[in-house]
Amino acid sequence: MLRVSTLPPNLHKDKQNPIQRSTALNYRAIGPTMPPSEATILSSFLLSKSSLQDVVTLQQFTQFFPQAKRNSPLIKHIYNDIQQRRTHTTDQIRRNIQVEAKVGTKRLLAARRKAEKSRRKDVDRDEVMVGDELYAAGQKQVDLREIVARMEVAEDLLKTELEGLHEETDRVLEEMKDIGGGLSDLRYGKLPGEGLEDDLVACLKVLTDLCERTMTTERCKSNGNTFDTNKIPAMQAGNPMQNACLS
């Protein structure tokens, strides 16, 4: 019986150098390379060499200042501050990439659902046009594979909606924790006393609304209404209770 090699033509033993042997072992171990995911592509494009040290080192950053100021310790503090801000930005981009990857999955499921609805409308239209001839010929049976495919689509949609509900619940819970932590400043007297009563009432109203939203989250969809704190006077910029209510 003839044995067919599973390796590419250029990876046979008799003509292998060390690099080719390593490639052959990897080919046997992992097989063909899988295409990169959306999150991998976005991360490679947006987060590659994103740290400040990859752009400019501290020594190079010091050269931007006049000769008389290069020995100042403030230069290192400025560099560290810029580095922290850049790290915060890259972390936010990384979170946005994960969200975008999930949104892409949801869009795919929505497109499949839309195509399924369109197909059903076409089937219903054909059934109406056929009319009595359809019933005369007997009721059409649905294929088992089609039923399984529909059930898989419905399962994916339910999982997506459930994930959205979990995300909404976690976000509301974090908002409640932030408000509770901010109100701890009131216990230790860190907030100014002027106008404190009105701001405290507004803050408690926010907490009440969040509690009500938590109780109704299971009836909301993943793309439901979001809580806009900018519409509440106590949450607007410049208000002394802003840092106490929201982080």
From TrEMBL:
Q: Which Pfam family is one of this chain's hits?
A: Cnl2_NKP2
Coiled-coil region(s) at which residues? Answer: none
- Region called Disordered, residue ranges: 1-20, 223-247
A single GO BP:
chromosome segregation
Alphabetical list of InterPro entries matching this protein: Nkp2/Cnl2
Q: List the GO cellular component terms.
A: Mis6-Sim4 complex
Which PANTHER family does the UniProt record give?
INNER KINETOCHORE SUBUNIT NKP2 (PTHR28064)
Full protein name:
Uncharacterized protein
Tell me the organism's taxonomic lineage: Eukaryota, Fungi, Dikarya, Ascomycota, Taphrinomycotina
